[in-house]
Amino acid sequence: MNNSIKKLLRESLNDAEIWYHGTPDVRNLEKEGGFTSKTISVQYIKDLEQYDQLMAKLQSSRANGDEDGYWKYLDMVPKLKDNFTFRKPVFLTNDRIVAKTYADPRRSFDYQNSVEKVLQVTVQGGKTVTIVAIGDRFRFIDTNKVKNGFISAGVSETEFDDVLRKVTFHQKIKDGIKTDMVAAIGEWFGFDIIDVVGVLDSYEGGSRQSTVRMVFEPSHIKIIK
User: Fold this and answer.
1) pTM of structure
2) Which of 69, 161, 200, 204 falls 20 to 30 Å from 143 in CA-CA distance?
3) How many other CB atoms are there within 10 angstroms of residue 31's CB atom?
């Protein structure tokens, strides 16, 4: 790891520092007294070995013109799927300018009456995975960078590859992993925080690097009055 990356990590990952959250409408958050827990779900494959066998049969049926066999095997695919429900992370950044882009009232359902705001917060520590993704777009992070982050955090390469395939079976991941899949993997392995360092992140794109922190337990986030 070169000195510039080490410096960026030191500057970005201080648990005592201020983080920022931009919201297009702060009214519900203030009414609820802070961030509240919400869940989202992704589909995953329960048994990869069975799934691979079924995909091979589907491919063979197509190649041999076996239409009846193809549809029979296709009908079996949903039985190998299940839903993984996990806590939706709260997204923070260490850069107030980046957070400000997400406080755009046009993002709000009631944009004419919305109250946009950038909140300053601190975060209670927890089990953390750090993904160094300098120059990547936050919404689509390089697969190897994600993998290296989890391995550095103690996840075995075999376990990571297995879970990655399970939750991204329907996606092409050669060039990157979508943010919701990174969050799902983090929750699968029991992490409290995912830090993505050096990403290009703003509501409308851009070229400003920052660290994005994904926090799974809202009660660990304290809003600074």
Assistant:
1) 0.87
2) 204
3) 7
Mutual angle of helices 143-152 and 179-188, in 10-degree steps: 20
Is the separation of the CB atoms in 210 and 196 below 8 Å?
A: no
Contact 119, 17 (CB under 8 A): no
CA distance 212 to 22: 12
For 64-109, the pLDDT digits (tens) are: 999 999 999 999 999 999 999 999 999 999 999 999 998 887 777 7
pLDDT band at 11 (very low <50, low <70, confident <90, very high): low
Q: Which of 85, 116, 150 is the last residue of a domain?
A: 85
Q: Which of 20-29, 76-85, 106-115, 116-125 has the lowest mean pLDDT?
A: 106-115
Q: Which sign does the torsion angle of CA 12, 14, 16, 21 carry?
A: positive
pLDDT grade, residue 6 (50/70/90)?
A: low
The reply to whether 95 and 198 lie within a common domain is yes
Residue range of the domain that includes 75: 46-85
